[in-house]
Amino acid sequence: MNTGQGGNIVGGGVGEGPGPDVMAAATLDGDEVRSSDGQDIGKISDIMLDVRSGRIAYAVLSEGGFLGVGTKLHAIPWSALTLDTAEKCFHVDMTAQQIKDEPGFDKDHWPAMADEKYGAEIHRYYNRDPYWGRSVGGVSDTL
Question: Where are the domains of the chain?
């Protein structure tokens, strides 16, 4: 069940040391992302932190292209992803076509990710509430 506070985790994988509940962001870079229709749609290229709130804002999906040329990037709200520890990938509850239809951006033209209007549009596209308006532990998380 997704509480809306962050990403879900499925597949077990509890062991010694970090993970899967607390992990270094770098260990997730390069993980495959699969759509709801079972297609591999790209890889996690970056995990973006909201420095002011101390929360993960987005995972950046790198989709298509060859050796970085023609690669389309997508900012996916962290709460829209489910980490599958058994398959060592992420799942997003959207079809491959829905991801392709999302405008995205390229590596040389990143959007203003701190802009609440941009963030609200992305969260709405992925059917998620913006993370910055929720409270965590009874404390408001508004920027």
Answer: 25-130
